[in-house]
Design goal:
six-stranded antiparallel sheet; 59% helix; repeat; rod-shaped; TPR repeat; membrane; three-stranded mixed sheet; Cyt_c_biogenesis_CcmI; Serine Threonine Protein Phosphatase 5, Tetratricopeptide repeat; 9 strands; TPR_CcmH_CycH; alpha+beta
Protein backbone atom coordinates (compact mmCIF):
# COMPACT_ATOMS: atom_id res chain seq x y z
CA UNK A 1 0.00 0.00 0.00
CA UNK A 2 2.92 2.37 0.65
CA UNK A 3 3.92 2.27 -3.01
CA UNK A 4 0.34 3.04 -4.00
CA UNK A 5 0.18 6.18 -1.86
CA UNK A 6 3.58 7.36 -3.10
CA UNK A 7 2.47 6.82 -6.70
CA UNK A 8 -0.82 8.64 -6.09
CA UNK A 9 0.99 11.67 -4.61
CA UNK A 10 3.31 11.80 -7.63
CA UNK A 11 0.39 11.62 -10.09
CA UNK A 12 -1.52 14.37 -8.28
CA UNK A 13 1.58 16.57 -8.20
CA UNK A 14 1.96 16.11 -11.96
CA UNK A 15 -1.73 17.01 -12.45
CA UNK A 16 -1.34 20.20 -10.42
CA UNK A 17 1.78 21.09 -12.37
CA UNK A 18 -0.14 20.71 -15.63
CA UNK A 19 -2.81 23.08 -14.31
CA UNK A 20 -0.24 25.69 -13.24
CA UNK A 21 1.93 25.38 -16.33
CA UNK A 22 -0.15 27.71 -18.54
CA UNK A 23 0.02 30.42 -15.89
CA UNK A 24 3.75 29.96 -15.48
CA UNK A 25 4.34 30.27 -19.20
CA UNK A 26 1.79 33.01 -19.66
CA UNK A 27 2.89 35.72 -22.06
CA UNK A 28 2.25 38.30 -19.41
CA UNK A 29 5.53 37.24 -17.91
CA UNK A 30 7.19 38.90 -20.91
CA UNK A 31 5.15 42.14 -20.72
CA UNK A 32 7.74 43.87 -18.56
CA UNK A 33 10.49 43.25 -21.06
CA UNK A 34 8.26 44.35 -23.94
CA UNK A 35 7.22 47.46 -22.03
CA UNK A 36 10.81 48.47 -21.37
CA UNK A 37 11.77 47.99 -24.99
CA UNK A 38 8.81 50.08 -26.17
CA UNK A 39 9.56 52.80 -23.65
CA UNK A 40 13.21 52.90 -24.70
CA UNK A 41 12.23 53.15 -28.36
CA UNK A 42 9.70 55.88 -27.62
CA UNK A 43 12.24 57.76 -25.51
CA UNK A 44 14.91 57.62 -28.21
CA UNK A 45 12.46 58.69 -30.92
CA UNK A 46 11.23 61.58 -28.82
CA UNK A 47 14.79 62.73 -28.06
CA UNK A 48 15.53 62.71 -31.77
CA UNK A 49 12.44 64.79 -32.46
CA UNK A 50 13.37 67.29 -29.71
CA UNK A 51 16.87 67.68 -31.12
CA UNK A 52 15.45 68.33 -34.61
CA UNK A 53 12.93 70.85 -33.23
CA UNK A 54 15.68 72.55 -31.22
CA UNK A 55 17.88 72.80 -34.34
CA UNK A 56 14.97 74.33 -36.22
CA UNK A 57 14.37 76.79 -33.40
CA UNK A 58 10.96 75.48 -32.60
CA UNK A 59 11.81 74.54 -28.99
CA UNK A 60 13.30 76.93 -26.49
CA UNK A 61 13.21 74.87 -23.28
CA UNK A 62 14.59 71.54 -24.63
CA UNK A 63 15.96 70.39 -21.28
CA UNK A 64 12.60 70.84 -19.57
CA UNK A 65 10.96 68.73 -22.20
CA UNK A 66 13.60 66.02 -21.74
CA UNK A 67 13.00 66.05 -17.99
CA UNK A 68 9.26 65.70 -18.55
CA UNK A 69 9.88 62.76 -20.87
CA UNK A 70 12.01 61.01 -18.25
CA UNK A 71 9.38 61.61 -15.59
CA UNK A 72 6.68 60.08 -17.74
CA UNK A 73 8.80 56.96 -18.12
CA UNK A 74 9.26 56.73 -14.36
CA UNK A 75 5.54 57.19 -13.78
CA UNK A 76 4.86 54.19 -16.08
CA UNK A 77 6.84 51.70 -13.97
CA UNK A 78 4.70 51.52 -10.78
CA UNK A 79 1.55 51.06 -12.77
CA UNK A 80 3.02 48.09 -14.63
CA UNK A 81 4.41 46.50 -11.45
CA UNK A 82 1.02 46.81 -9.81
CA UNK A 83 -0.55 45.17 -12.82
CA UNK A 84 2.05 42.36 -12.62
CA UNK A 85 1.26 41.81 -8.92
CA UNK A 86 -2.43 41.66 -9.71
CA UNK A 87 -1.71 39.09 -12.42
CA UNK A 88 0.21 36.89 -9.96
CA UNK A 89 -2.62 37.14 -7.46
CA UNK A 90 -5.13 36.17 -10.15
CA UNK A 91 -3.03 33.12 -11.13
CA UNK A 92 -2.81 31.90 -7.54
CA UNK A 93 -6.54 32.36 -7.17
CA UNK A 94 -7.00 29.83 -9.97
CA UNK A 95 -4.15 27.41 -9.19
CA UNK A 96 -4.84 26.88 -5.45
CA UNK A 97 -8.56 26.04 -5.76
CA UNK A 98 -7.80 23.86 -8.77
CA UNK A 99 -5.14 21.94 -6.83
CA UNK A 100 -7.51 21.43 -3.91
CA UNK A 101 -10.22 20.28 -6.29
CA UNK A 102 -7.88 17.74 -7.94
CA UNK A 103 -6.78 16.35 -4.56
CA UNK A 104 -10.32 16.17 -3.24
CA UNK A 105 -11.78 14.58 -6.36
CA UNK A 106 -8.94 12.09 -6.78
CA UNK A 107 -8.99 10.65 -3.27
CA UNK A 108 -12.74 11.07 -2.89
CA UNK A 109 -13.50 9.10 -6.05
CA UNK A 110 -10.93 6.46 -5.11
CA UNK A 111 -12.46 5.87 -1.69
CA UNK A 112 -15.90 5.77 -3.30
CA UNK A 113 -15.20 3.59 -6.34
CA UNK A 114 -11.63 2.33 -5.93
CA UNK A 115 -12.50 -0.80 -3.86
CA UNK A 116 -9.74 -0.03 -1.39
CA UNK A 117 -11.08 -2.66 1.01
CA UNK A 118 -10.86 -5.31 -1.70
CA UNK A 119 -7.32 -4.26 -2.57
CA UNK A 120 -6.29 -4.49 1.07
CA UNK A 121 -7.92 -7.92 1.38
CA UNK A 122 -6.18 -9.06 -1.82
CA UNK A 123 -2.80 -8.07 -0.38
CA UNK A 124 -3.55 -9.81 2.91
CA UNK A 125 -4.55 -12.97 1.03
CA UNK A 126 -1.34 -12.82 -1.01
CA UNK A 127 0.69 -12.55 2.19
CA UNK A 128 -1.19 -15.57 3.57
CA UNK A 129 -0.35 -17.77 0.56
CA UNK A 130 2.29 -19.97 2.30
CA UNK A 131 -0.07 -20.89 5.15
CA UNK A 132 -2.96 -21.68 2.81
CA UNK A 133 -0.71 -23.73 0.50
CA UNK A 134 0.60 -25.75 3.43
CA UNK A 135 -2.94 -26.45 4.56
CA UNK A 136 -3.97 -27.59 1.08
CA UNK A 137 -0.97 -29.90 0.74
CA UNK A 138 -1.53 -31.46 4.14
CA UNK A 139 -3.73 -34.59 4.57
CA UNK A 140 -6.45 -32.32 5.95
CA UNK A 141 -6.39 -30.19 2.78
CA UNK A 142 -9.97 -31.20 1.95
CA UNK A 143 -11.10 -29.28 5.03
CA UNK A 144 -10.35 -25.94 3.40
CA UNK A 145 -13.47 -23.82 3.47
CA UNK A 146 -14.98 -22.34 0.34
CA UNK A 147 -13.68 -18.87 1.27
CA UNK A 148 -10.19 -20.27 1.87
CA UNK A 149 -10.28 -22.00 -1.49
CA UNK A 150 -11.27 -18.73 -3.14
CA UNK A 151 -8.55 -16.81 -1.28
CA UNK A 152 -5.92 -19.41 -2.19
CA UNK A 153 -6.94 -19.32 -5.85
CA UNK A 154 -6.65 -15.51 -5.90
CA UNK A 155 -3.25 -15.57 -4.19
CA UNK A 156 -1.95 -18.25 -6.55
CA UNK A 157 -3.10 -16.39 -9.66
CA UNK A 158 -1.34 -13.27 -8.36
CA UNK A 159 1.85 -15.20 -7.72
CA UNK A 160 1.74 -16.99 -11.08
CA UNK A 161 1.29 -13.67 -12.86
CA UNK A 162 4.74 -12.66 -11.61
CA UNK A 163 6.26 -16.18 -11.52
CA UNK A 164 4.81 -18.09 -14.51
CA UNK A 165 7.48 -20.81 -14.25
CA UNK A 166 6.40 -21.94 -10.77
CA UNK A 167 5.30 -25.55 -11.39
CA UNK A 168 4.18 -26.02 -7.78
CA UNK A 169 1.91 -22.99 -8.04
CA UNK A 170 0.26 -24.34 -11.20
CA UNK A 171 -0.14 -27.74 -9.51
CA UNK A 172 -1.90 -26.16 -6.52
CA UNK A 173 -4.14 -24.09 -8.79
CA UNK A 174 -5.05 -27.24 -10.69
CA UNK A 175 -5.94 -29.06 -7.47
CA UNK A 176 -8.19 -26.19 -6.42
CA UNK A 177 -9.91 -26.31 -9.80
CA UNK A 178 -10.38 -30.06 -9.41
CA UNK A 179 -11.93 -29.54 -5.99
CA UNK A 180 -14.30 -26.96 -7.52
CA UNK A 181 -15.02 -29.26 -10.51
CA UNK A 182 -13.86 -26.63 -13.01
CA UNK A 183 -12.32 -29.19 -15.35
CA UNK A 184 -11.06 -26.86 -18.10
CA UNK A 185 -9.20 -24.71 -15.57
CA UNK A 186 -7.78 -27.81 -13.89
CA UNK A 187 -6.52 -29.25 -17.18
CA UNK A 188 -4.99 -25.92 -18.22
CA UNK A 189 -3.21 -25.40 -14.89
CA UNK A 190 -1.96 -28.99 -14.70
CA UNK A 191 -0.71 -28.83 -18.30
CA UNK A 192 1.36 -25.74 -17.50
CA UNK A 193 2.84 -27.54 -14.48
CA UNK A 194 3.55 -30.62 -16.62
CA UNK A 195 5.19 -28.53 -19.37
CA UNK A 196 7.53 -27.04 -16.77
CA UNK A 197 8.35 -30.23 -14.86
CA UNK A 198 7.23 -33.29 -16.82
CA UNK A 199 9.18 -35.81 -14.73
CA UNK A 200 7.57 -34.88 -11.40
CA UNK A 201 5.35 -37.82 -10.29
CA UNK A 202 2.95 -35.59 -8.32
CA UNK A 203 2.45 -33.37 -11.35
CA UNK A 204 2.02 -36.38 -13.64
CA UNK A 205 -0.64 -37.77 -11.30
CA UNK A 206 -2.44 -34.43 -11.04
CA UNK A 207 -2.41 -33.96 -14.81
CA UNK A 208 -3.71 -37.50 -15.34
CA UNK A 209 -6.46 -36.93 -12.78
CA UNK A 210 -7.60 -33.77 -14.58
CA UNK A 211 -7.45 -35.41 -18.02
CA UNK A 212 -9.41 -38.41 -16.75
CA UNK A 213 -12.36 -36.13 -16.01
CA UNK A 214 -12.39 -34.75 -19.54
CA UNK A 215 -15.01 -35.89 -22.03
CA UNK A 216 -12.40 -35.98 -24.79
CA UNK A 217 -11.15 -39.48 -25.68
CA UNK A 218 -7.73 -38.06 -26.57
CA UNK A 219 -7.38 -36.57 -23.09
CA UNK A 220 -8.41 -39.83 -21.46
CA UNK A 221 -5.91 -41.82 -23.53
CA UNK A 222 -3.16 -39.45 -22.46
CA UNK A 223 -4.23 -39.88 -18.83
CA UNK A 224 -3.92 -43.67 -19.15
CA UNK A 225 -0.42 -43.32 -20.59
CA UNK A 226 0.64 -41.10 -17.70
CA UNK A 227 -0.80 -43.50 -15.13
CA UNK A 228 0.82 -46.46 -16.87
CA UNK A 229 4.19 -44.71 -16.75
CA UNK A 230 3.75 -44.08 -13.02
CA UNK A 231 3.02 -47.76 -12.44
CA UNK A 232 6.07 -48.78 -14.48
CA UNK A 233 8.20 -46.37 -12.45
CA UNK A 234 6.94 -48.03 -9.23
CA UNK A 235 5.25 -44.86 -8.04
CA UNK A 236 3.23 -46.30 -5.17
CA UNK A 237 0.21 -44.10 -4.59
CA UNK A 238 -3.34 -45.24 -3.96
CA UNK A 239 -4.65 -42.52 -6.22
CA UNK A 240 -2.88 -44.05 -9.24
CA UNK A 241 -4.63 -47.39 -8.82
CA UNK A 242 -7.88 -45.68 -7.88
CA UNK A 243 -7.88 -43.74 -11.16
CA UNK A 244 -6.96 -46.85 -13.12
CA UNK A 245 -9.76 -48.82 -11.45
CA UNK A 246 -12.29 -46.05 -12.07
CA UNK A 247 -11.26 -45.80 -15.73
CA UNK A 248 -11.38 -49.59 -16.19
CA UNK A 249 -14.86 -49.77 -14.62
CA UNK A 250 -16.14 -46.94 -16.84
CA UNK A 251 -14.81 -48.80 -19.91
CA UNK A 252 -16.52 -51.98 -18.65
CA UNK A 253 -13.14 -53.67 -18.22
CA UNK A 254 -14.34 -55.21 -14.96
CA UNK A 255 -11.47 -57.72 -14.48
CA UNK A 256 -8.96 -54.86 -14.64
CA UNK A 257 -11.03 -52.82 -12.18
CA UNK A 258 -11.11 -55.76 -9.75
CA UNK A 259 -7.36 -56.19 -10.12
CA UNK A 260 -6.61 -52.53 -9.33
CA UNK A 261 -9.01 -52.44 -6.37
CA UNK A 262 -7.43 -55.64 -5.06
CA UNK A 263 -4.01 -54.02 -5.24
CA UNK A 264 -5.35 -51.11 -3.23
CA UNK A 265 -6.67 -53.52 -0.61
CA UNK A 266 -3.27 -55.15 -0.34
CA UNK A 267 -1.66 -51.73 0.06
CA UNK A 268 -3.90 -50.47 2.87
CA UNK A 269 -4.68 -53.73 4.71
CA UNK A 270 -7.95 -54.92 6.33
CA UNK A 271 -7.58 -52.55 9.27
CA UNK A 272 -8.10 -49.51 7.06
CA UNK A 273 -11.64 -48.11 6.96
CA UNK A 274 -11.50 -47.96 3.16
CA UNK A 275 -10.98 -51.72 2.88
CA UNK A 276 -14.71 -52.50 3.11
CA UNK A 277 -15.55 -49.83 0.56
CA UNK A 278 -13.09 -51.42 -1.87
CA UNK A 279 -14.63 -54.82 -1.17
CA UNK A 280 -18.05 -53.48 -2.16
CA UNK A 281 -16.56 -52.02 -5.35
CA UNK A 282 -14.99 -55.39 -6.18
CA UNK A 283 -18.27 -57.21 -5.53
CA UNK A 284 -20.11 -54.78 -7.77
CA UNK A 285 -17.61 -55.32 -10.59
CA UNK A 286 -17.87 -59.07 -10.13
CA UNK A 287 -21.66 -58.82 -10.41
CA UNK A 288 -21.18 -56.99 -13.68
CA UNK A 289 -18.97 -59.89 -14.85
CA UNK A 290 -21.67 -62.37 -13.88
CA UNK A 291 -19.59 -63.92 -11.09
CA UNK A 292 -20.96 -65.06 -7.78
CA UNK A 293 -20.27 -62.52 -5.09
CA UNK A 294 -17.60 -63.60 -2.66
CA UNK A 295 -15.95 -66.25 -4.84
CA UNK A 296 -13.44 -63.91 -6.52
CA UNK A 297 -10.01 -63.65 -4.90
CA UNK A 298 -6.71 -62.15 -5.92
CA UNK A 299 -3.11 -62.73 -4.91
CA UNK A 300 -0.80 -59.75 -4.45
CA UNK A 301 2.88 -60.63 -4.86
CA UNK A 302 5.71 -58.27 -3.88
CA UNK A 303 8.89 -59.23 -5.74
CA UNK A 304 12.48 -58.25 -5.01
CA UNK A 305 15.88 -59.46 -6.26
CA UNK A 306 19.14 -60.27 -4.52
CA UNK A 307 22.22 -58.13 -4.98
CA UNK A 308 23.96 -60.86 -7.00
CA UNK A 309 21.19 -61.08 -9.59
CA UNK A 310 21.91 -59.62 -13.02
CA UNK A 311 19.36 -59.89 -15.83
CA UNK A 312 18.87 -58.63 -19.34
CA UNK A 313 16.38 -55.71 -19.29
CA UNK A 314 14.56 -57.39 -22.17
CA UNK A 315 13.94 -60.54 -20.08
CA UNK A 316 10.46 -61.49 -18.86
CA UNK A 317 9.13 -62.08 -15.37
CA UNK A 318 7.02 -65.24 -14.97
CA UNK A 319 4.86 -65.42 -11.85
CA UNK A 320 3.01 -68.64 -11.05
CA UNK A 321 0.68 -69.59 -8.20
CA UNK A 322 0.79 -73.19 -6.93
CA UNK A 323 -0.95 -75.20 -4.27
CA UNK A 324 0.61 -74.98 -0.83
CA UNK A 325 2.34 -78.36 -1.23
CA UNK A 326 4.49 -76.98 -4.06
CA UNK A 327 2.93 -78.92 -6.91
CA UNK A 328 4.86 -78.16 -10.13
CA UNK A 329 1.66 -77.59 -12.09
CA UNK A 330 0.60 -73.94 -11.51
CA UNK A 331 -3.00 -73.03 -10.80
CA UNK A 332 -2.50 -69.55 -12.26
CA UNK A 333 0.36 -67.82 -14.06
CA UNK A 334 1.21 -64.52 -15.73
CA UNK A 335 4.09 -63.03 -17.72
CA UNK A 336 5.26 -59.43 -17.21
CA UNK A 337 8.05 -57.22 -18.55
CA UNK A 338 11.07 -57.35 -16.23
CA UNK A 339 10.65 -53.77 -15.02
CA UNK A 340 12.32 -52.53 -11.85
CA UNK A 341 12.41 -53.92 -8.34
CA UNK A 342 10.90 -54.09 -5.85
CA UNK A 343 7.53 -54.35 -7.60
CA UNK A 344 4.06 -55.70 -6.93
CA UNK A 345 1.88 -57.76 -9.26
CA UNK A 346 -1.61 -59.13 -8.71
CA UNK A 347 -3.04 -62.38 -10.08
CA UNK A 348 -6.72 -63.28 -10.05
CA UNK A 349 -9.11 -65.76 -11.64
CA UNK A 350 -8.36 -64.24 -15.03
CA UNK A 351 -4.88 -65.77 -14.76
CA UNK A 352 -6.16 -69.29 -13.96
CA UNK A 353 -4.67 -72.08 -16.09
CA UNK A 354 -7.79 -74.30 -16.11
CA UNK A 355 -11.37 -73.21 -16.60
CA UNK A 356 -12.68 -75.58 -13.94
CA UNK A 357 -10.05 -74.71 -11.36
CA UNK A 358 -10.02 -71.07 -10.41
CA UNK A 359 -7.36 -69.35 -8.38
CA UNK A 360 -10.05 -68.23 -5.96
CA UNK A 361 -10.77 -71.87 -5.09
CA UNK A 362 -7.47 -72.21 -3.20
CA UNK A 363 -7.45 -71.93 0.58
CA UNK A 364 -3.65 -71.73 0.77
CA UNK A 365 -0.94 -71.32 -1.83
CA UNK A 366 2.67 -70.56 -2.65
CA UNK A 367 4.17 -68.42 -5.43
CA UNK A 368 7.15 -69.01 -7.69
CA UNK A 369 8.80 -66.22 -9.69
CA UNK A 370 11.35 -66.70 -12.48
CA UNK A 371 13.30 -64.32 -14.71
CA UNK A 372 13.02 -65.87 -18.17
CA UNK A 373 16.01 -64.75 -20.20
CA UNK A 374 15.35 -66.48 -23.57
CA UNK A 375 11.57 -66.25 -23.95
CA UNK A 376 11.11 -70.03 -23.77
CA UNK A 377 9.32 -71.20 -20.62
CA UNK A 378 10.52 -74.76 -21.23
CA UNK A 379 14.19 -73.87 -20.81
CA UNK A 380 15.49 -72.79 -17.43
CA UNK A 381 19.28 -73.00 -17.64
CA UNK A 382 20.83 -69.86 -16.19
CA UNK A 383 17.49 -68.33 -15.15
CA UNK A 384 17.15 -66.71 -11.73
CA UNK A 385 14.19 -67.70 -9.57
CA UNK A 386 12.65 -67.53 -6.10
CA UNK A 387 9.62 -68.88 -4.25
CA UNK A 388 7.51 -67.90 -1.28
CA UNK A 389 6.40 -69.68 1.84
CA UNK A 390 2.93 -71.21 1.92
CA UNK A 391 0.30 -68.60 2.87
CA UNK A 392 -3.45 -68.47 3.20
CA UNK A 393 -5.55 -66.99 0.43
CA UNK A 394 -5.85 -63.24 0.88
CA UNK A 395 -2.56 -62.81 2.72
CA UNK A 396 0.19 -60.76 1.01
CA UNK A 397 3.01 -62.75 -0.58
CA UNK A 398 6.71 -61.78 -0.77
CA UNK A 399 9.23 -63.45 -3.05
CA UNK A 400 13.00 -62.86 -3.16
CA UNK A 401 14.71 -63.87 -6.41
CA UNK A 402 18.17 -65.08 -5.38
CA UNK A 403 18.60 -68.60 -6.82
CA UNK A 404 19.79 -69.74 -10.21
CA UNK A 405 19.10 -72.91 -12.16
Amino acid sequence: MTLFWIASVILIAISILLIALPFIKKKSNNDEQLRDELNKAFYKDRLSELEEEADEGLVENQQDLIDDLKQSLLDDIPADEKKHDESNTSALAVIIPSALLVIGLSYGLYFKFGASDDVQQWQEVSDNLPALSKKLMSPEGAELSEDEMSDLSLALRTRLHYQPDDSTGWLLLGRIALANRTIDTAIGAMKKAYDIESDNPDIMLGYAQALMLSQDDVDQDKARRLLGKLVQDDYVDLRVFSLLAFDAYERKDYPAAVRYWSIMQQMIGPQDSRYEMLSRSIENAQKQMGQQVGTGQSVSVTINVGDQVSADPSASLIVSVHTADGSPMPVAAARYPLGTFPRTVVLDDGNSMLQDRKLSSLESLMVRVRIDSDGNVATKDGDWFGESEAVKMGEPVEVMINNQY
